[in-house]
Write a structure and sequence with these properties.
The protein is of the alpha/beta class. About 35% of the residues lie in helices and about 20% in strands. Helix 5 links the parallel strand 5 and strand 6. Helix 4 crosses helix 5, helix 11 packs parallel to helix 12 and helix 14 crosses helix 15.
Length: about 625
């Protein structure tokens, strides 16, 4: 392992692993597997094609593909050309994909046929990874420098405009190199890729596997949102290292224990949101403690995924109420500072400033915001240190352990996604005709308290108005109309009053209208599952699930219930058909389509791998 070399690119690190572990499985998805050599061959072939299409150092290439081996191939291929990759989540509305593609100034997009509309509208070349396997499979040999950008991941913006965080190969190689002694990753490990490629937790999952010769198992969009199916994958694939947001883990662990999936697990890493010790204690229950190490890690997209680590003391969970994030990982510095930038004494709350190897290059084409958030200090010795001002609050305890205390601003955290409420509020004003609005998170759901100039929009109107511009996790699941936003004695928004308003709205809203006395068989099944998940009667075939009290986490429970009854259903089906009538109709017609889609994608993958193997054999390698 050459990670001590500070000038290595992530391409250098991966190609080292190919030389050492070429015949070992690198990627697994269901019955299909790619070895390190095959993964490298495919990435090299695609890199050659991308270079011909204009990908090179200093440019950015979008990747708009479903979850699967092709996405990882595309990431490697883009990096091998010297360009940086920009993940474009194929579940995002076309308008948002268009903004990301335009803002990041993409030269080409790697995508299948589903990306045609976006590419055509933007005048961007589309490269299909499945059509590149006939090219040379030799390493391109393009020099990739440590300070070259590796990827640009977009996060929510306070101005209503997402901002692209630019992370270098040096940042990424440092992240991967630092955990070597911390976690003992190696070729005997099997990791699960369980997060969106647009969420930087996936960067950690992908590279801690590929940089250490481990096997990376790729879960589908539907599987990662269905605890039963995900637990079955953990058991079947004998996953040894699992990365999870705490809220996802709380829902998953019962099924993990049920199917015995914890038998192979040696390490669970939490990240992406605050860990609640009381909830974790309740989740683990009174059963004998598993032979698993639980680690809580704090980090930010702008500081290359992870900043600190803290081993969870399972024996103290029952009495611990603080969210401890531990101490910085090697190569990273953490400083707690007051509003004037002075270091806070131990025990005093301040803003978390992050320095060291993980600090990103800045925001793409946002020099003023970069200058505001990425700052430099000069030590008494005259050395310059670059920092990222996180906006998170914390305080140091004896021994240097840091307690996380939330945000200094309004930024929200929703199941690992950082959401700037201003972006949602601006969209509500522009798209839904509201005059004033406050967006908050309550009971793990995004809620909008609105003042309208005319009739207040209902949740259905809001979802229709925002679905073309915001991703699903940024669309409110509850709308509360008010005459005026409640203010406290200082003229500021009153959080307690907002909570009371939202609580009252949740209690009042229901779905007891209409007549469901005559139902088809599928409609009756959907209604029964809804009622079980929502805990109330539902008597209107056309009420929106989210208007009836549902939220995005409850969608997973509905999918779980329908899958258990033998229906071929995906999370995306419920967002597209959110009423009993439309959902039942979709179920009646979607089963064959879901199976056909899986078969088609599997066939494309098998064809591509066969082409690679024939090509290598034909060259006598």
């Amino acid at each position: 392992m050459r990670y001590a070399d500070n000038n290595m690119s992530i391409v250098d690190i991966f190609e080292d692993r190919v030389r050492e572990s070429g015949s070992r499985p690198a990627l697994a998805r269901g019955p299909w597997t790619l070895t390190y050599a095959e993964l490298n061959d495919w990435a090299n072939a695609l890199a050659l094609r991308l270079s011909a299409d204009g990908a090179q150092s200093g440019r950015r290439v979008g990747i708009c593909l479903p979850r699967g081996p092709e996405f990882v191939v595309a990431v490697l291929a883009v990096l091998k050309t010297g360009a940086a990759y920009v993940p474009l989540d194929d579940s995002y509305p076309e308008e948002r994909l268009g903004f990301l593609a335009t803002d990041s100034e993409l030269s080409v997009i790697v995508g299948d046929g589903a990306a045609d509309d976006v590419c055509t509208r933007l005048g961007v070349t589309r490269t299909d990874p499945g059509e590149a396997t006939g090219h040379s499979v030799e390493n391109p040999g393009r020099p990739v420098k440590a300070d070259d950008p590796a990827y640009v991941i977009y996060t929510s913006g306070t101005t209503g405009r997402p901002k692209g965080v630019v992370v270098s190969h040096r940042n990424l190689a440092g992240l991967i190199g630092r955990p070597a002694a911390e976690f003992n990753f190696g070729t005997s490990d099997t990791l699960l890729l369980a997060h969106s490629f647009s969420f930087d937790f996936s960067v950690w999952e992908m590279w801690t596997a590929l940089a250490y010769g481990a096997t990376l198992v790729i879960a589908t969009y539907e599987e990662i949102r269905n605890p039963r199916r995900l637990a079955s994958i953990l058991a079947r694939e004998k996953i040894t290292v699992l990365n999870q947001t705490p809220s996802a883990f709380y829902r998953l662990w019962r099924d993990v224990v049920r199917v015995g999936a914890h038998g192979a697990l040696r390490l669970v890493i939490f990240g992406g949101e605050r860990l609640d010790p009381a909830k974790l204690h309740t989740t683990l229950g009174s059963a004998p403690r598993p032979n698993v190490e639980f680690v809580n890690m704090y980090g930010i997209t702008e500081t290359t995924v992870h900043v600190t680590r803290s081993t969870v003391d399972l024996d103290q969970l029952g009495t611990e109420r603080r969210s401890m994030i531990g101490t910085p990982i090697p190569g990273v510095e953490l400083s707690i500072r007051d509003a004037e930038g002075r270091v806070c004494p131990e025990g005093v709350t301040g803003e978390l400033w992050v320095g060291g190897a993980g600090v990103a290059l800045g925001y793409h084409n946002r020099p003023e915001l970069t200058a505001e958030k990425f700052v430099s200090t000069i030590s008494p010795a005259g050395t310059t240190q670059r920092w990222y001002r996180s906006g998170d609050l914390g305080r140091a305890h004896p021994g240097g352990d840091v307690e996380f205390l939330g945000r200094a601003d309004r930024q929200l955290n929703l199941r690992g996604h950082r959401v700037e409420p201003e972006e949602v509020e601006r969209a509500l004003v522009e798209r839904c005709g509201v005059r004033d609005v406050v967006v908050v998170v309550e009971n793990e759901a995004l809620c909008a308290v609105v003042v309208s100039g005319g009739p207040a929009p209902d949740i259905g109107q809001v979802r229709r108005g925002l679905s073309g511009t915001l991703p699903p996790h940024m669309i409110p699941s509850l709308v509360v109309p008010v005459a005026a936003i409640p203010l406290d004695a200082h003229g500021k928004t009153d959080p307690a009053a907002l909570r009371r308003l939202i609580g009252t709205a949740i209690r009042r809203r229901g779905a007891e209208r209409g007549d469901t006395s005559v139902l088809s068989g599928t409609q009756r099944v959907v209604r029964d599952v809804w009622q079980k998940v929502l805990g109330r009667a539902v008597t209107d075939l056309d009420v929106n699930f989210f208007d009836a009290g549902g939220h995005s986490l409850a969608v997973v429970d509905v999918v779980d219930g329908l899958v258990a009854l033998g229906y071929a259903v995906r999370v995306t089906d419920l967002f597209a058909a959110p009423t009993i009538r439309s959902c039942a109709a979709r179920l009646d017609h979607s089963g064959e389509a879901v199976r056909r889609d899986a078969v088609d994608r599997g066939s494309r993958f098998v064809d591509a791998v066969e082409s690679l193997r024939v090509h290598r054999h034909g060259e006598g390698t």
